[in-house]
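Dear support,

I submitted the protein below through the web form. The confirmation email said the job was done, but the results page showed an empty box. After a refresh the structure appeared. I'm attaching both so you can tell me whether what I see now is the final result or a partial one.
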Amino acid sequence: MLEWTVEKLAEEGVDEIILAVNYLADMLKRHFKTRFNGVRIRYSIDPTPLGTGGPIKQAQRLLENKETFLAMNGDILSEAPIKSMLKAHRETGAIVTIALHKVEDPSRFGVAKMANQTRIEAFIEKPKKREAPSSWINAGIYLMEPDVFNYIDTGKKVSTEREVFPILAKMEKLHGFKCDGSWFDIGKFEDYMNANHKFLARISRRTPMVGDGTKVSSSTRLIPPVVINRKVEIGDDCIIGPYAVIDDHVEIERRSEIARSIIFREAKIRERSSINGSIVGENAVIGKEAKLRGGTIVSDYVLVRDNVRLGPDVIVCPHKEVDRSILKPMHIK
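What the results page shows now:
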């Protein structure tokens, strides 16, 4: 997700990005290093989780209070037009401009109450659907002036939505920019899968995408949209797709079927397995004639034994072994 975000920002002309990191900071540093996709990468380390506002304050020394900057949540996929948003931000004289996305059900999000076409009067956090002041939600993308640092305490956990934005709204310095186009908050299984399906349909609507070094048996059917990455091995008489993503170094044995699912790198799918509407994590092993259904998540390094059936909505935590069928929603810790 971060790679995708960096690539999109680079297309908009961004040449420097600060990653505010806490959990798995070392892993992110190893992956992105100091430059990625032509963009300079710097790191602001949060010693403890600091909410949505604390990390922005923590990065102040790197931003140097010089100019307008863009802040984004790390768990969204968006195609917001940053240049157009920046133009609008400068025209209104706002301290913060928030990208807004229209949804049918705003009850899961922070909802903007608009004073006019751009100015935000207030934010209502997760209102009941019938009580929502609008259908425009906080899309987790912000253009900010350095003045915003005056409203965030140093070293403290701060919520921009609850502690900073209400002050700016009263000052009439909080504005919104209404965005069309794709936007996904992938915090829920359904949203994550929908995002994958959306982008799969865009890049592989009619033709499967197959990476370098991948071997697919001539008797196997690939039904687009489907993306198969590098050095994957797929045996005889399999059916892969539609809406399937197969990551690097995955092994899929004969007569297996995978649809509407994501298989992460180095997983092993044994013969005659069937996976539909599910996620299989890195280095997981799915046994012979196993079946995974709707909303099942098999995490990294899990072993699912032969003939086991899982789903709907079964979640298996990492490094577990599953040797019996589970046909009702369950979280295996």
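Response: this is the final, complete result; the empty box was a page-load delay. The chain is about 20% helix and 30% strand.
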